[in-house]
Automatic annotation (TrEMBL), chain A:
The keyword Transport applies. GO terms for cellular component: plasma membrane. PANTHER family: ABC TRANSPORTER ATP-BINDING PROTEIN. This is ABC-2 type transport system ATP-binding protein. The keyword Lipoprotein does not apply. It comes from Streptomyces pini.
UniProtKB/TrEMBL annotation, chain B:
Its main location: membrane. The lineage of its organism: Bacteria, Bacillati, Actinomycetota, Actinomycetes, Kitasatosporales. This is ABC-2 type transport system permease protein. Pfam families: ABC2_membrane (PF01061). One of its GO terms (cellular component) is ATP-binding cassette (ABC) transporter complex. It is found in: Membrane. Residues 10-206 form the ABC-2 type transporter transmembrane domain. It comes from the Bacteria. The chain crosses the membrane at residues 20-43, 49-68, 101-123, 129-149, 161-182, 218-238.
Amino acid sequence: MPQAPLAAPDRTSPAAEPAVVARAVGVTRRYAGHTALDSVDFEIREGELLGLLGPNGAGKSTLVNLLTGLRQVTSGRCELFGGDPRRPENRLRIGVTPQETGLPETLRVTEVVDFVAAHYPDPVDRGELLDRFGLTPLARRQTGGLSGGEKRRLAVALAFVGRPRLVFLDEPTTGLDVEARKALWDRVAEFHAGGGTVLLTSHYLEEVEALAERVVVLGRGRVLADDTVAAIRGLVDVHRVSLVAGELPRLPGVVSERREDGRVHLMTTDPDRLVRELVTRGVDFSGLEVRPTSLEEAFLTIAGS
Amino acid sequence: MTMAMTLVHTRYQLLRTVRIPIALIGSAFFPAASMIFFVVPAAGDDPTGAAYATASMVVFAAIISNLFGHGVGVAEDRAQPWDPYTRTLPVGLLPTFAGRILTGLVMMLLSMVPVVVIAAVFTEASVTVGGFLTALVVLVVATVPFMLMGLSIGYLLSTKAALAVVQIVFFPLAFAGGLLSAPDAAPGFVKAIAPYVPSRGAVELMWAAVGDFEVRPLPVVTLVVWTAAMGALAVFAYRRDEGRRYR
């Protein structure tokens, strides 16, 4: 059977990789005495659906603000489609979600969409956009009168008005009910299936798991991990084993150990094995508790270790 | 492109403002009420006096509209996440800013409509077409320092602080400039300080436009100095705010 070697994607050659649509090179950003980003290297390639994870204050918003041209780097370089994000023409191919609390209250849904659309050479048809995001029945309403979920849907829809190649979605479905969340995820997945690139910021692993292929974890202004969703899942699958005990022997799989109010808190990736070890080694303990940690705790543990 | 975007931004800012009509009523109320309670009974039958008083109230309305519109309006916008969002759109800074200025101008002109209507209907004040058009141009130019003052307040202060400062500033500006008395009937201390208050130069130029008032040099020099000073303050305030939020 004849082969078509030229058309086959060559994973080993960098020339065959999709183009980088946004990039940060050695980016440091300081605010009055505190470092929000510390020499971060980061890139998104065309067609990726990338999750940016991290606890509050990790530097996620700062990175997005730098990439969307809202702020300047202290040092390093940011690029959007090969150009400076601070130049308006380089922002033509991106879409950003406003915070839903910030929509102009007195404007109608259609007016907000039209205002955003006026900035792009070839915006999507308004009726079609409203339809896709289930906003058609709300078209004539002023945004101040929408519910939180409705505002959120409008905010996400606005990112797609200018037919972007890259969208920045910041916690797109936080606070939505299951059905609305699923609907929005479907819209994002559709956009991605059509070749669109997505940078999804969240501190909910669930949301990132549902959508993203690759995950970058930020913590205290640094990139802590850059891997597949499955790998990150394993990395942050940390449990807290806490107990009352005296001096402990060296135990396997313990990421961190902290004493507080007479209790020892052990962070571990394998709580079963840890408990078995405690028993086999005859450690004298009481008040055993095993709890899964929140993502936030898990990140802080990774960040600290 | 910039021109078209400026019009887009102006249109939506006007739309946002007009949807809260109380803002417009707020700037129009004081001058219109002063017309009805003071100007009409006291000077309604005197064509010259009524014309001067109307010009004073128009300047008063312009001061209020600029200070509230820009002072409180800018402070409010700065507090909203919508403002940073619009900066991620593919547009420079100019259309938003120019839209703000044009919106302020339209709101200012609207706020003085009641004063002019009251003057035309209930007083003997009259003005030639030429005089009216001159007054319009003079008004736009002579109230620039109040626009700049409003912008400075808006970019320097929070909404609550801006509201308080505007409320404290607008009345003394009108009173000390002699807007609330006839050209030569102001109380002695007002006569002494008026030449150094920007509203005086503005109102004298307006009086000259609608009647044959002879403008004195000092208030006009004062007006120019205030314009320059407020311009410098507004530029400083704008840069400081941009620097804080977007650097």
